[in-house]
From TrEMBL:
CDD domains: Radical_SAM
Domain Radical SAM core: 112-335
PROSITE patterns recorded: RADICAL_SAM (PS51918)
Name this protein carries in UniProt: Radical SAM core domain-containing protein
Domain of life the protein comes from: Bacteria
InterPro entries linked: Aldolase_TIM (IPR013785), Radical_SAM_PqqE_MftC-like (IPR050377), rSAM (IPR007197), rSAM_sf (IPR058240)
UniProt keyword list: Iron, Iron-sulfur, Metal-binding, S-adenosyl-L-methionine
Species this protein is from: Pilimelia columellifera subsp. columellifera
Amino acid sequence: MDVRRTTQNSAPGRVIQPPVHARPVAGVAFRVEPFGAVAYVGERDDFFALDRDHAALLGDVLARGPVAVAGAVADQARTLAALGMLRTEPPTAQRPHLGRSLVGALTELPRLSGPLVVNCFSTANCPLRCAYCHADDLMAPAKAGERWSDVAAVLRTADQVPALVAVVTGGDPIVAPERASWLLGRLAPGKRLVLDTSGAGDLGPLLPALRRHRAHVRISVDSADAAVHDRLRPTSPRALPRGASSHALAHAALLRLAEAGVAHSVQTVVGGHNEAAGMLRRLRDHLIGLGVRHWVLHMAVPAGKAERRPGLLPGPDIAAQLRDLVDESEAAGSPLDIRVTGARSAPNSVLLVDSRGHLCVQRPDGPGKEVIWPAGRDGGPEQMSSCLNRHVDWAGHASRYLNGTLEPDPQLVPLGTQPRGR
Ligand code: SF4
């Protein structure tokens, strides 16, 4: 192997260091951007925005295979390896990432050239009846009479959205594993994959597709306390035995994924039910004890059922509380990677393909979702791009997936809070 970058190493008087070998990692997606690139790490379910130097190195490794690097470029390789984007020899240990997902010289969340994520409903049915369900408005009218032609329509629309990652969701894919597996298989050639589930059911039928396509699985856990979790996320007696605990089922699912070697994380909806001081800290410590290393906190927003039940939303100081939790975790050297989302003032920052194949965003001007690309429509990339530019809040989209929600951006901090610097 050639040592391709050695200039800093050969400066007069400098001690010659052996080169670092940088190798590609499976499950990483990469897109060149005017500012450098965005990369997605499937194992961590994390996006990163890279400056041009880091983008050039990662692009080189992904396109051409292992390279030997030295000097400042070896430092860049170690930075990328610590975040899971490549691997080095000698090895670099991965570390959690808790702030904005910027690498190198970038100081602001960048303007993206296209979407990072499209959420794809594989079904409108679900074994739970969560009090705050954000997708209820899309699910309710589509639960009865689901057909295979619907999931084909979902694929047709999702294929046209130039996102790096597709999240197979619902409803809950666990109730219709054939449809979810079919969708995973068809989406895999063009996108990295995430499966979003409550875990309240049998993951077994989904495991072959999850393994084959290296999908990352997100499981929902709202509290370390089963009673709190089950009260907000009750099971439906039509789908599961009466009295079944969604908390216990989520934990069984986490164990099964760990045993199966499938990358996974926990997501938590933060609202009136669990925002009290101490509850999220207990949950954080509980997850660390379970061996979970990636945690996404979604501030409940006024969408779906939560739109009609404002009492379920978090209080006005939630951003400050979460910032304290993140700062404290970072200072304590917590092994958890933490990402926070909250789209209260950027509702049209999330792309959803509903279970009939319509591409939607949350309406920025009132309740409910807005269809921006109807099911069955075939347009070229330019038409899709102009549709997305008309309807998507790109700053909100970048902030959501590049962990900018807690930054002092008045547009993105929930109403009524006073942002402070970090
Ligand atoms: S698991 Fe998700 S889709 Fe199902 S009711 Fe709960 S929030 Fe809604």
